Amino acid sequence: MSVRLSDITSADIAAERARFPRAYSASVRERVHFWLLWGGGTALTLYCLYRFGFFTAGFLHGVSKFGSVVVAQLFPPTGFANLPMFMMVMGETIAMAFMGTLLGAMFAFPLSFLASRNMTRSRPLQFGARRFADLLRSFDYLIWALIFVRAIGLGPLAGIMAIAIVETGTFVKLYSEAIENLDRKQIDGVIAAGGDGLQRIRFGVMPQVLPMMLSNTLYMFEHNVRSASILGIVGAGGIGFLLADRLRAYELQEACLIIILIILAVYAIDYLSKILRERLIGDHRRREPVDDAAQT
């Protein structure tokens, strides 16, 4: 049955409003909650902007001064005679990020099954694994780097351990969420075929969660290259020590060259991780255009 718009009268609209009031307008309680939420958020934002000096002349002067520093003092980059040394230390930074990410993924993989509600029947064990992961990632890389520098001394090993500790907590969260969101039908099929616990994980869980795990791991590797670039500030190896040294000595143009190297390294790793992700996951096949003629 079709109804034309011209046949609908004001009385019909009023009757429908009376029958389904929530479909036409929110209740008074919902409107109050909406305005309290957005009004409170807006007031808090304005207060923070005022409290931290965003509305002062000093902030505007600092922004303009920042622009002049970037344009006038950083460029053009110099120190190309030290480029081989910079590239060698940049390679050390990438190696730190790789080892830290790899160790974090290895430690987090078994813990993620303990932290998943649909894999661990013991709620205290699952809760403890979750809170342990929260503890590991509660502190920043620099704090863990300071602890490991004090414990095992200066050098890249302290940076690797700092990255590994933080990434273990991060990967436990990411991996466990991927495991909790999987489809139970594939697991039930393995159980119905007589599969044991290991076969349930191998054939029911891993084919579903492995693409997400690999994608998250590759992204965090790219993120850790940026993080490893500043760990040298506290003596944990990498190019961060050279960058901090150039900034402290006001050799800003050499610092600019180091910053450019870091940016190029992140670009290259992002491109390579994209290719690797497509090869391992098969993502390139899903994005290929559909050939209608071939299907017909």
How would you summarize the topology of this molecule?
Layout: H1 10-19, H2 21-24, H3 28-51, H4 57-74, H5 83-114, H6 123-138, H7 141-152, H8 156-180, H9 184-192, H10 197-231, H11 240-248, H12 252-281, H13 283-286, H14 292-295
Helix pairs in contact: 5-8, 5-10, 5-12, 6-8, 7-8, 8-10, 9-10, 10-11, 10-12, 11-12
Largest sheet: none
Q: Give the structural class.
A: mainly alpha
- In total, the number of strands is 0
Name of the level-1 CATH class of the largest domain:
Mainly Alpha
CATH architecture of the largest domain, please?
Orthogonal Bundle
Which ranges are low-confidence, i.e. pLDDT below 50, for 5 or more consecutive residues?
292-296
Radius of gyration: 27 Å
CATH topology of the largest domain: MetI-like fold
List keywords for this structure.
296 residues; mainly alpha; MetI-like fold; 14 helices; extended; disordered C terminus; 2 domains
Write structural notes for this entry.
Helices cover 78% and strands 0% of the residues. It is mostly helical. Helix 5 crosses helix 12 (252-281) and helix 7 (141-152) crosses helix 8. The longest helix is centred in the C-terminal third of the chain and has 35 residues, at 197-231. The two termini are 36 Å apart.
Quick overview:
With 296 residues, the chain is mostly helical.
